[in-house]
Amino acid sequence: MSDRQPIVVAGNHPLFAGQRTISKPYALDLVGRLANGFFEWFGDLGIFFWKVLRAGLTPPYEWRELVRQLDEVGSMSLPLVAAAGAAIGIVISMEARYSLSRFGAKSMFSTTLVYSVIQVMGPIMTGLIVSGRVGAGIGAELASMKVTEQIDAVEASAINPYRLLAATRILACILMLPLLTLAADACGLLTGWFAQAMVEPLSFHQFIESGFKGSKLNDFLPPTFKTAVYGLIIGLIACFQGMRTRGGAAGVGRAATNSVVLASLFVILADVVLVKFILVFFP
Length: 283
Description:
By secondary structure, the protein is mainly α.
């Protein structure tokens, strides 16, 4: 039997008109091209990261642009992060109260809420919120500059676009993510305590003392500072997608969409790796 036996594509059964078939070599070629595109994307990302790193470490430094990006990433994202943190605190408070009551462990409420917010939900929620807002903003902004040839104009003015446009945005994301995480944690703990206090009398002092009893800095610092890695991922992918855009207005839309989707995906994957890293090196 020939190795070019046709394969019927799903959705185009012979009973229907317009039957379409794909040969086995073509299917293998398609898989090969997809794999090649996957590794090519990672290779281009690595080259882009090296260019940004080299440009960012060599003077002159763009301090004014960095301060502007710190304000854009931090101050503008704070209301969203605080609101999301507050909502998460209320949800965890209600779920923890119900679950702990079933097993007669209501005395563990404060500890459960503190550890759930600070170690788990606060960091990953902040990373996803910022990847949605900042990732889309950076991707769309740089993509618009690319298709209108503003990046070419910056380069023609003897200014390194990797230093001015990419390095400042990536560094701002790295610096601001831990601070935004602290804000989200604080709002989550405050609203979580408030939701519990509305049901049963519980002073804030008692809640904090019971929640942090027996805890160490190793319990809270690594989960907070791991969000700096999230910032690196968000800034790097958003800048990379924006500065490689082609295709006019449609390309700008694709860059914004891809920035959010890829940044969110890699933040979740990085969280898996970082949690294991923290458990091994910060027991």
